[in-house]
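Q: what does this look like with iron/sulfur cluster bound?
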Amino acid sequence: MSDSADVRRALASWVSYLGEIGVRELELREAPRAPSAAEVPPAGDAPALLAAIREDIGDCRRCKLCDARTNIVFGTGNPHAELMFVGEGPGADEDAQGEPFVGRAGQKLNEMIRAIGLTRKDVYIANVVKCRPPGNRDPQPDEVGTCSPFLFRQIEAINPKAIVALGSPAAKTLLGTKAGIMSLRGRWASFRGIPVMPTYHPAYLLRAYTVENRQAVFDDLKAARARIDEAS
Ligand code: SF4
């Protein structure tokens, strides 16, 4: 198939996905420039692919979240990670430091990762949107629609064996559904052939710190750990 046919097919798929998650219009402040074939690192070279994605983001002003951000929070961790965690967007601490999950929720996420015998350095952590939504609100559909292709490219570059989606916005974005986390949690789904386990966001766990919720998250992470072990 020709390059232009591939581009048309990818564009049609993206537009269809945006419709499914409720995007009716996009505000493109700066047209993304498609990298030429010579600029795209070879598949499998995850560090180079991630560096190229970060370079494409640049000092991004493609959506309105750029207006109040301090730092773009790209993602962090092992480019060859077998397990990836995806949250919704940076909070105040993350915005200040430029790294995902470094505040209280981040400490909780670190505990969750350690509970399944891994460390932050073993996994890769990223968000659906790279700039902080004001007041820690959920990212809006137009913001998700504009920024999520960067996340999808990160996932494609890392090619993990499993993804844990932390909370509703992350699960909805990856799974292309309007269903909430209460109905999605604990059940395997898939993003472009990669198994996805939706679970509660660590910030929610901190707010609703019940035995049931802690057990539910632990069960989800144990299932994710078993999945990557099986695939190794
Ligand atoms: S949230 Fe994403 S698309 Fe919007 S300005 Fe930040 S990096 Fe760009």
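Residues 57, 60-63, 65-66, 72, 129-131, 143, 146-147 surround iron/sulfur cluster (CB under 6 Å). Residues 211-231 form the longest helix (21 residues).
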